[in-house]
TrEMBL record:
Keywords: Cell membrane, Membrane, Transmembrane, Transmembrane helix, Transport. The chain crosses the membrane at residues 140-166, 173-195, 201-220, 255-282, 302-326. It is a multi-pass membrane protein. It comes from Aquimarina litoralis. This is ABC transmembrane type-1 domain-containing protein. The keyword Cytoplasm does not apply.
Length: 339
């Protein structure tokens, strides 16, 4: 379900602007279910953005939304009183009717451009819609998990298969490399790689992927060491098949069941690492919607009676990680020959 949401995030999000970054400072830090009246002023900039671009990357030129308490039509203007909190009365503001499509009556403008807006999960400290930020944030978590696992599989399966099949000095060197990498704390290594490659979105992908191949390599090496003793491998060698064909056609297909289980666990691990990096400020950079960065921005609000601002993205991370761990356990049971 989360994968489906990640693909169609901008279609499902109430705020379809790029990175769900439309701010309304007057309604910041509101609780779940908060409602306010909004007036929408159409953008005067003509957009040449394609429909597919809007679906996958968000709308670039968004209409301007203003939270208001009341409004009234007066000849060629709309007089609005912006939303204010408490007993303060907002300073009235005049909006020219020329900013709306021509030929519309007051009633038509009222029906099309003035509406009640409900923020199901509330708003963050910048007045952005939390629900939209959560939906867009799923993309970051899924992307980091998918790319990191892909990199770890390419490196881990290749090096593990070479170490297990050829043995000798090749095995000694690869095992030395594995042990050195394993001895370095994962988060510390990711931070070092991220800082070396500069902070950013794709740099985190590479950094996390380069630290998760070790476990895959060890498992593949162990599987190859046992499988290469099988009679069908000896027969393939006797028939003169190349090492590449023996490894790819006969050994690896029979050794990937445990690797699939590890991949599901690594997917969950990659999500946690990315969240930790974003919390430290070296993961996905603002204004990207990252669950870890959302916790970083709002963890101080826990003592201010607005803990939901940090708890909501925390629950999202916990649920997604638990889903992948449960999927990994199910794959382990399904692929267990003894079971």
């Amino acid at each position: 379900m989360c994968a489906f949401i990640a693909i169609l995030a901008y279609m499902l999000a109430p705020d379809s602007s790029k990175n769900a970054n439309q701010m309304h400072l007057s309604i910041h830090s509101k609780g779940p279910g908060f409602s306010v009246k909004m007036i929408t002023i159409p953008s005067q900039v003509e957009s040449d953005q394609s429909y597919l671009s809007k679906i996958f990357f968000g709308t670039k030129n968004m209409d301007t939304e203003i939270p208001i308490e009341s409004y009234s039509f007066n000849e060629e203007i709309i007089n609005v009183i912006p939303y204010t909190e408490g007993e303060l009365i907002g300073v009235s503001k005049n909006i020219a009717l020329s900013g709306f499509p021509k030929g519309l009556s007051s009633e038509e403008i009222e029906n099309q451009f003035i509406h009640d807006r409900t923020f199901i999960l509330g708003t963050d400290k910048y007045g952005r819609d939390m629900l939209s930020r959560m939906l867009i944030g799923i993309r970051i978590s899924f992307s980091i998990g998918f790319v990191a696992v892909l990199i770890s599989l390419l490196l881990g399966i290749t090096l593990g298969a070479l170490a297990g099949y050829f043995g000798g000095k090749v095995d000694v060197f690869i095992m030395w490399l594995i042990n050195v990498t394993w001895s370095i704390p994962t988060l510390l290594l990711v931070i070092a790689i991220t800082l070396a490659l500069d902070k950013g979105f794709w740099q985190v992908f590479i950094a996390v992927g380069l630290t998760m191949w070790v476990e895959v390599a060890r498992v593949v090496r162990g599987q190859v060491l046992s499988i290469k003793q099988m009679q069908y491998v000896t027969a393939a060698k006797a028939l003169g098949f190349t090492h590449f064909r023996i490894i790819t056609k006969h050994i690896l297909p029979n050794s990937l069941a445990p690797v699939i289980v590890i991949s599901a666990a690594n997917f969950a691990g990659a999500i946690l690492i990315e969240s930790g990096l974003s919390f430290l400020g070296i993961g996905a950079q603002p204004p990207m919607a990252s669950w870890g960065a959302m916790i970083k921005d709002h963890y101080s609000y826990i003592i201010l009676g607005k803990a939901y601002l940090a708890i909501i993205p925390g629950l999202g991370i916990m649920s997604l990680v638990m889903a992948f761990m449960l999927m990994g356990n199910a794959l382990r049971d399904a692929l267990d020959v003894k079971g």
